[in-house]
Amino acid sequence: MREHYFLTMLQSLSCDSIDKYTQTMICLETTVLCHLLNNASRQLTHTDFTSI
C-alpha cells in the first residue's frame, strides 16, 4: 500500500535536516492523507440501509 510506504518514509526523516517550511508542508500533507484515509475507511465500513 502506497500510503503505508509514504508514512514509513516520513517517520524516517530527520527533522534537523529539513527547514521549517518543508516540515510544515509535510505535516499538512500527512494531515490531509490521514483525513482522506479516515473518510475512505468510514465509507467502506458504513452500511447504507437502502443498499440492503
UniProtKB/TrEMBL annotation:
Domain of life of the native organism: Bacteria
UniProt source species: Salmonella enterica subsp. enterica serovar Mikawasima
Keyword Hydrolase applies: yes
The protein's name in its UniProt record: Type I restriction endonuclease subunit M
Keywords attached to this entry: Endonuclease, Hydrolase, Nuclease
A GO molecular-function descriptor: endonuclease activity
